[in-house]
């Protein structure tokens, strides 16, 4: 644990230095990131305002869901930046060897190297603000138990997102050129679908969005359970269980890929965007 | 060339089609939830909105008007493009057209064929609407390309990161253009304001004409006006930033 915090501190300082080295560039990235993430949910926000909610979701409930989705994205960005979440880019460009030669476990490197809390804070702030606004208008229980479940589900949603990217990204061990951008496409898929409430859609589509493409676990399902929108209370455990299952699958796939990498090595190398 | 390249270089375009289909299915479901039993809202019935959403996805590439200009800045190939015996704007437009044609063939046509299964009427409001739609779409592409090239030149002129500008433009443009949500359905009268912006001329205008929720005699001249205003601006910006484009080398 001490190593994790020490490394997070190191990378956080590096991130801050990057931002203040050229404030204009840092501010531009900060504003662009915030704008992009708010725009991703703006459509649903505006619809909620116009129609005072969507289906069984009231306006504050929907805004809570959108804030949750934004916060999940913000945590993924701030914890797994520098192409850690987009792992297929590192694998496809032969940059994974940079991770392997370091004198620490691979999991520690991947958990810490992408820590960019300052440059990704725009998204965190936007998500937090929406949650605070919505929480003030909802009868959110002030109990420690509810907040514990909230944090657990939030972390589970983060794990779902990262695991999905790593599961698909592992393909790059076998097809480094063709699959270089597959993590990007996988995350793009989740990002574009995360803000939709899935009530009332065709069961097959809803099932697909909770299994094959688990966008439903990024915000809709956990918020549904936390806010009690039409589900029994025990459903609050489903997202953490989904996260466990998906992370186990991703771990197996990644380990198999690493064995393949040990046999074949990197057939191509490009330093492009390695901590650029 | 770009059409075949899009298939050969990366099989991930299939994931993109999956995303697009999931997105349109979700939007249709959302609209049904929002508008069922309400009658006409701001002049748009449920049936109209469903057609609007479907056609917006069918013609998504033309209504977004994205080219590879940012990629050319990023990798520095912009310099060699100026040496080709074809106009720079024509090059990017033609390459984008190849990609759009492939997507139309592989995704949009099947989506149109599947419209009855999705419970959506894909047909235009009438023969006149169809004719005006074609004209409006062409003008929309013209305005969209002018905006695309203007943004690219501005990014170089002000030394902004083209990737960041690209992301912002994509995100904000989708909302302002009315491609995702019809502008008339936005709250606080936002749609009235956005309607006059050039982004609305790219997507909202042709879609409203297709669904007969907009007057072509007002929308088409507005599109023409934006086209006439923006192309000289785009040319001027490119002339002003041409030296930087070539010198920076990506």
Order of helices and strands of chain B: HHHHHHHHHHHHH
* 3D shape of chain B: globular
Q: Quick check: average pLDDT of chain B? A: 87
Largest pleated sheet of chain A = none
* Through-space gap between termini of chain B: 23 Å
User: Cα-atom Rg of chain B, whole angstroms?
Assistant: 19 Å
Q: What is the helix tally of chain A? A: 13
Largest interface: A-B, 37 and 33 residues
Percent helix among the residues of chain A? 55-70%
Can you describe what's shown?
The complex is a heterodimer of chains A (276) and B (250). Chain A is mainly α and 276 residues long. Chain A has helices at residues 2-21, 23-51, 59-79, 87-92, 96-100, 106-112, 121-137, 144-169, 171-174, 182-193, 203-208, 220-227, 238-264. The longest helix of chain A has 29 residues, at 23-51. Chain A is globular. Chain B is mostly helical and 250 residues long. Chain B is 73% helix and 0% strand. Chain B has 13 helices and no strands. Chain B starts with a helix and ends with a helix. The mean pLDDT of chain B is 87. The A-B interface holds A 25, 28-29, 32, 35-36, 39-40, 42-43, 46-47, 49-51, 54-55, 178, 181-182, 185-186, 188-189, 192-193, 196-202, 205, 208-209, 213 and B 10-12, 15-16, 18-19, 22-23, 25-26, 29-30, 32-34, 160-161, 164-165, 167-168, 171-172, 174-175, 180-181, 185-188, 190.
Short structural summary:
The complex is a heterodimer of chains A (276) and B (250). Chain A has 276 residues and is mainly α.
Topology:
The complex is a heterodimer of chains A (276) and B (250).
Chain A: H1 2-21, H2 23-51, H3 59-79, H4 87-92, H5 96-100, H6 106-112, H7 121-137, H8 144-169, H9 171-174, H10 182-193, H11 203-208, H12 220-227, H13 238-264
Helix pairs in contact in A: 1-2, 2-3, 2-7, 3-7, 3-8, 3-12, 8-10, 8-13
Chain B: H1 2-9, H2 13-35, H3 46-58, H4 60-64, H5 69-75, H6 78-81, H7 88-113, H8 127-157, H9 162-177, H10 190-194, H11 198-202, H12 204-210, H13 216-248
Helix pairs in contact in B: 1-7, 2-3, 3-7, 8-9, 8-12, 8-13, 12-13
């Amino acid at each position: 644990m001490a190593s994790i915090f020490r490394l997070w501190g190191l990378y956080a300082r590096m991130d801050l230095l990057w931002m203040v080295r050229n404030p204009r560039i840092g501010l531009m990235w900060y504003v662009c990131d915030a704008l992009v993430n708010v725009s991703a949910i703006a459509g649903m926000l505006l619809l909620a305002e116009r129609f005072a909610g969507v289906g069984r979701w009231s306006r504050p409930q929907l805004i809570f869901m959108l804030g949750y989705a934004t916060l999940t994205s913000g945590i993924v960005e701030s914890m797994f930046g520098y192409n850690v979440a987009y792992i297929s880019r590192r694998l496809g460009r032969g940059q994974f060897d940079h991770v392997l030669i370091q004198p620490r476990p691979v999991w520690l490197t991947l958990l810490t190297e992408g820590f960019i809390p300052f440059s990704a804070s725009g998204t965190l702030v936007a998500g937090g603000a929406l949650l605070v606004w919505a929480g003030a208008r909802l009868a959110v229980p002030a109990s420690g138990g509810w907040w514990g479940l909230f944090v657990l589900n939030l972390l589970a949603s983060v794990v779902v997102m990262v695991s999905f990217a790593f599961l698909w990204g592992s393909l790059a061990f076998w097809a480094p050129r063709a699959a270089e951008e597959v993590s990007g496409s996988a995350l793009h898929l989740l990002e574009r679908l995360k803000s939709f409430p899935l009530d009332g859609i065709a069961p097959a589509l809803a099932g697909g969005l909770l299994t094959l493409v688990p966008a439903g676990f990024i915000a809709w399902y956990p918020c549904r359970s936390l806010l009690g929108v039409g589900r029994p209370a025990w459903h609050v455990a489903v997202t953490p269980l989904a996260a466990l299952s998906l992370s186990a699958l991703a771990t197996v796939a990644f380990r198999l890929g690493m064995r393949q990498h040990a046999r074949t090595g990197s057939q191509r190398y490009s330093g492009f965007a390695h901590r650029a | 060339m770009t059409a075949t390249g899009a298939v050969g270089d990366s099989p991930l375009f299939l994931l993109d089609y999956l995303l697009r289909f999931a997105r349109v299915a979700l939007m249709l479901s959302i609209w049904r939830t929002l508008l069922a039993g309400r009658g006409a809202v701001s002049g748009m019935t449920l049936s109209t909105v469903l057609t609007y959403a479907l056609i917006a996805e069918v013609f998504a590439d033309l209504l977004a008007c994205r080219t590879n200009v940012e990629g050319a800045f990023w990798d520095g190939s912009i310099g060699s493009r100026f040496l080709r015996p074809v106009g720079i704007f024509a090059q990017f437009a033609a390459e984008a057209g190849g990609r759009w044609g492939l997507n139309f063939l592989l995704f949009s046509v099947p989506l149109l064929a599947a419209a009855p299964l999705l419970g959506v009427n894909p047909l235009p409001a009438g023969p006149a609407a169809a004719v005006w739609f074609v004209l409006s779409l062409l003008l929309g592409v013209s305005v969209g390309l002018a905006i695309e090239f203007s943004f690219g030149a501005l990014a170089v002129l002000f030394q902004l990161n083209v990737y960041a500008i690209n992301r912002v433009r994509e995100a904000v443009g989708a909302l302002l253009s009315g491609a995702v949500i019809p502008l008339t359905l936005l709250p606080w009268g936002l749609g009235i304001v956005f309607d006059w912006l050039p982004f609305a001329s790219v997507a909202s205008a042709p879609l409203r004409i297709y669904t007969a929720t907009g007057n072509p005699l007002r929308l088409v001249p507005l599109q023409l006006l934006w086209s006439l205003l923006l192309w000289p601006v785009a040319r001027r910006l490119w002339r002003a930033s041409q030296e930087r484009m070539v010198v920076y080398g990506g």
